[in-house]
Specification:
single chain, about 270 residues, alpha+beta, Immunoglobulin-like, seven-stranded mixed sheet, three-stranded antiparallel sheet, about 35% strand, rod-shaped
């Protein structure tokens, strides 16, 4: 740091040059504001209700006194000049005082842009509490993935929609996409056979007119007697399909009496 030794014998030559050097020395302190950065509250400026207290701030490379008061949205820099009387009898504005305060005008700065400085002695401790970059990146990626999934959910979507197989309107919430084709039924019923008898036989199964003979007979023999061992000795097939009937051919292989019925369903082809 530059110094001036005033304590000398013989009368110190105090002049405007010496005073200018003092002013230059003082101005070097402005550079310390760069430690905290532009638009920083260095000290003070405490908020009490709607008022802000006095303090010190750093603006445009200059450390300035801040004169508080009722909080406003804008801050300006003011300069007051004090005139002194010289030996020649003239008065000149030589003492200039610059400070920041609330106000409006050219070059006004938003008060919300000012941030309170952080003491450098606490930096190491604060850095030690920071999360590892890889952990933060992993969390950020996970959040981004969740957000991507959430964005696919339609706004106002219901969480408990009951699907409706019969819903044909594809704009409704309960509509089911890509349903498999359903099997229609032309007719169904039960035909009583009783005993199939020993010889080959034909039985005619009748039903209401279905308008076609192009169908498949899906059916099964049902044992209705007490002797299943007798009821299972039958071979059957279908022939002569018509609009109102089909023939059921029977072959009994054991010669014993059965008690049978035939359940059927007609499926269009």
């Amino acid at each position: 740091m530059n110094t001036i030794n005033f304590n000398q014998v013989g009368g110190f030559p105090l002049s405007t040059t010496i005073l200018a050097k003092l002013q230059t020395a003082f101005s070097l302190f402005n550079a310390l504001g760069n430690i905290v950065g532009e638009l920083t509250i260095i000290s003070g400026c405490d908020v009490a209700g709607t008022n802000v207290g006095n303090g010190v701030v750093y603006i445009n490379g200059e450390v300035l006194e801040f004169r508080g008061g009722l909080a406003q949205t804008k801050v300006i820099i003011k300069e007051d000049a004090e005139s002194l009387l010289f030996e020649n009898g003239n008065s000149y504005p030589v003492v200039k005082t610059r400070y920041a305060t609330f106000g409006t005008g050219v070059g006004a700065i938003n008060w919300v842009d000012f941030k309170r400085g952080y003491q450098t002695k606490n930096l190491l401790g604060a850095l030690a509490l920071k999360a590892d970059d890889s952990i933060v990146t992993a969390i950020a990626d996970a959040v981004a993935l969740m957000l991507e999934k959430l964005n696919t959910i339609e706004q106002g979507a219901e969480k408990n929609v009951q699907p409706n197989w019969s819903q044909a309107d594809d704009t409704k919430d309960d509509f089911i996409k890509n349903k498999p084709s359903t099997i229609s039924c032309l007719a169904k019923g039960t035909f009583n056979i009783g005993d199939a008898i020993t010889a080959d036989s034909l039985r005619t199964v009748t039903f209401a007119d279905v308008g076609t003979n192009n169908y498949m007979v899906v059916g099964c023999m049902v044992s209705t007697g007490s002797n299943f061992d007798a009821d299972n000795d039958v071979i059957w097939m279908v022939r002569e399909k018509g609009n109102t009937s089909f023939k059921l051919t029977l072959r009994e292989v054991s010669g014993v009496v059965q008690n049978l019925s035939f359940e059927y369903m007609l499926i269009p082809l």
